[in-house]
Amino acid sequence: MPDVRRYMARAGELFRVPADNPELTRAQFQAFSKQVPLLYFILITNSLALAYTFLPLAPAWLTVSVPALLSTITGVRMLWWLRQGEVTSSDAEVLHNLRVTNRIAGPIGALFVVWSFALFPYGDPFAKGQVAFYMAVTVIGIIFCLMHLRSAALIVTLVVIVPYVIFFMSTGVHALRAIAVNQLLVSGAMVTVLFIYYRDFAALVASRKSLLAEQAATQALSDENFRLANLDSLTDLPNRRRFFSELTHAFAEAERDGTRLAVGIIDLDGFKPINDTYGHTVGDRVLMEAARRISEVCKSRGSQVHLARLGGDEFGLVVVGNPTDDDLLALGREITDLIKLPYQFDTTHTGLSCSTGFALYPRSAMAADALYECADYALYHAKRRARGQAIIFSTELEAEIRSRSVIEHLLRTADFETEMDLAFQPIMDATNARTTGFEVLARWRSPKLGLVSPSSFIPAAERIGVIRALTRVLLVKALATARTWPDDIRMSFNLSAHDICSPEGILPLISIIHASGVPPRRIEFEITETAVTFDFARAEESIAALKAIGCGISLDDFGTGYSSLSHVHRLPLDKLKVDRSFVRDVNANPVSHKIIKSLTGLCADMEISCVVEGVETKEQLDSLKRLGADYIQGYYFAEPMPAEAIYGFLTKERQRFAEPAGAKVAGLSA
Predict the structure, then answer these.
(1) How close are the terminal C-alpha atoms of the chain, in Å?
(2) Domain named GGDEF: which ranges (predicted)?
(3) Mind spelling out the 3-state secondary structure of 276-309?
(4) What one-character-per-residue DSSP string does 546-565 give?
(5) 3-class DSSP state for residue 660?
(6) Which of 613, 644, 653, 659 is catalytic?
C-alpha cells in the first residue's frame, strides 16, 4: 500500500506546476508565453474551419453561437498572453499564471471536445471525417505548443484523446476506428517526446542556473580580486597601482579640458624611530591613524583630492579642479597640522610630522609620469631643506634636476682610474680610543665640475648602471693603500645593492681581493639595510661568499632602512653600524637615547660588535660608551683624510699612548 500511494503521489506531480524550482518555473513561463498565443490561434482557426464545414448541416447555435463563444474565450486568453511579453512578473505571479493555465486547460479542452462530438451526428461521411481530422490535428498542435508546461500538455492530451478514442471506436466504422488507433499511437509517441523534451529542458535550465551561479561567483571573485589589487590592506586606502591609474585618468581629463592638475607625495617624518622603538604593531597603528587624518582633510575637499598609500610611510595625492599654488600649500599645511597632533596608543604617546612635495601640470611637466617624478623631487628637497613643510616643484628644483642630469652624463664618460680618489676615516675602539681600521670614502674630481660629493655621484652611478664598474676601480685603489698599513688595521669598504645583488654576483670582487695580497681577514664590507632588502636571497648568497673567504660584514646605517630583525638574525654579521641621525641628539632626545641603547643591547645579544658613527663631541662619546658602543667613528677623532696622511695620523696616535718618541709604526710604510 505505501508503494501504491507513493506511485500515485508521483503520478499526481505530473499534473501539477512545480513550486520548488523558481528558475525552472520562470523559464517555463518565458518560453510558454511565446507559444500560447500560437496555441489559441490554431484552436480558433481550426474551430472556425470546422464550423464552416457544418454550417449548412447543423443548427445555427452549434455552427455560429457556440464557436463564437469559444473563440471569444480563447481570443481573450490569447490577447492576455500577448501582453505578458511586456510585463515583468515576480516569481509568485509567474507561478500563479501557470497554475491558472493548468486549471483551465482541461475545461477548455473538454468544451471543444463536447462541441466536436455534438456536431458529429449532423455530418455526412466527409463532414464526420473532418471532425476526426480537426480533433487529431488540433490536439497535436496543442501538445507541441504546451511542451514547456508538461502538466497542461498531459491534461489536454487525456481530456481530448481518451474521449476521442472511445467515441470513434464505438462508431463501428472501420476507417474511424483505424484513425482512433492511429491517433492513440501518435499521441503516445508525442507524450514520450514531451517527457524527453521536458527532461532536457529542465536539465538545460539547471545547467544554466549552475553556469550563472558559477559566473556570478567568478565575477564576485574577480571584483574582490580587483578591489584587493587596488587596495592597501593596512589603511584601506587605494594602493600604488590604483594611484597611478587615477593619475593617468585625471591627467588625460586635464589635458583634454586644459585645466591644472597637481600630484602630491607625503612622507612621514620621524616614523622610522617610532617603528624601531615601539615595534611594528604600534608603527602600523600610527600609519592607520595618519592615513585616517590625511583622508579626513582630503574628504573635506569633496572629490577634488584623491588619496592613496604608495608604500611604507609614503602617501600620494592627485588634486584636480584647477588647483593654484595657494590651494596646494593650504592643503599641505592642513595635512601637516593634523599629522603633528599627538598619537596616543594605550601607554604609548608619540608624535611625528610630514613633508610634502607637489608638482603642477602643465607648469612642471607635460606627462603623468614626469609630473610624479617632479613631485617626488620636491618631496626630496623638502626632507633635506624644509622638513615638515610642503614644497611645490619650481624652476630652482628643475635646475637641480638638470644638474643631476649633467652629473649622470659626465659619469658615463668619466675615467674612473684618474678621476676617482679615496679618503679614509678612522674607526676607533670605544674603550681606549685607538684606531682599529679605516672606512674608505670615494671622492670624484671631475675635470668639468670639480669636486663632486659622494651623495650626488654615488646615487647617480647606481641610476645609470655604472656603480659596479666604479666599485671595482675603488676597491683596487683601496686595497693597494691598505696593503701599506699595519697588520692590525682593518679596511672597511662600502658595497651598494647593485654590487651584492647583481646577476654577475660577487665573484669579480673576490678576484680583486685575491689579487691584492691583502688578507681577507683585514677587509670588512659595509652593506646598507636597503641593499639587503633590494634582493635578500641574492644578497644573502653574496654575503655568504664573502664570509667564506674570511671577510667581515657590517650592516651600515642601521635604523634608517627597511630591514627587519629577522633579516639581521639570518645574516652572518660581524658588526652593526648605528646611523649618525640617532647620535646627533642622543643627549637631548629620549627616543634617540632609547634606540641606541636598544641597538647596543641587540648587538650584545647577537654577539656582534656595535659601531656608532657621527660622533662629534666628547659628551656624545661619553654617552655612547655608557650605552655600550664597541667602536666609534666621527669628526671628534678625525675627518676623512687622504691616503698619505694615514702614516702621520697613526704615528701621532702611538705617541699619544706614550710610545717612544721617533718609534716607527710597525708594518706601516710612509
Answers:
(1) 119
(2) 259-395
(3) HHHCHHHHHHHHHHHHHHHHHHHHCCCCCEEEEE
(4) HHHTT-EEEEEEETSS---H
(5) coil
(6) 613
Cell of 179: 484513425
Has residue 54 got a pLDDT over 60? Answer: yes
With a CB cutoff of 8 Å and minimum separation 6, the contacts of 37 are 78, 81, 82
Per-residue pLDDT of 365-388, as tens digits, reads 888 998 998 899 899 888 877 788
pLDDT digits (tens, 9 = 90+) for 57-112: 888 888 888 888 888 888 887 787 777 766 666 767 766 766 777 777 778 778 87
Specify the DSSP class assigned to residue 63. Answer: I
Specify whether the backbone of 95 is left (phi greater than 0), alpha (psi in -120 to 50) or beta: alpha
HSE, side-chain direction, 13 A CA sphere, residue 11: 6
**Helix, strand counts (H, E) of the chain:** 25, 16
- Which of the four pLDDT bands, split at 50, 70 and 90, describes residue 670? very low
58's CB contacts (< 8 A; 6+ apart) are 119, 122, 123
Residue 236 — left, alpha, or beta (φ > 0 → left; ψ -120 to 50 → alpha)? left
- Do residues 474 and 439 lie in contact, with contact meaning Cβ atoms separated by under 8 Å? no
Distances (CA, A) of 380 to 249, 313, 385: 26, 14, 9
CA 73 to each of CA 43, 52, 66, 77, 142: distance values in angstroms, whole numbers, following the listed order: 11, 19, 11, 6, 16
Residue 53 neighbours by CB distance under 10 Å:
20
SS3 letters across 378-447:
HHHHHHHHCCCCEEECCHHHHHHHHHHHHHHHHHHHCCHHHHEEEEEEEEEECCCCCEEEEEEEEEEEEC
**Which helix (H) or strand (E) is 71 found in, with range?**
helix 66-84
Q: What are phi and psi of 267, to 5 degrees?
A: -125, 130
Q: CA nearest 35: which of 90, 82, 98, 87?
A: 82
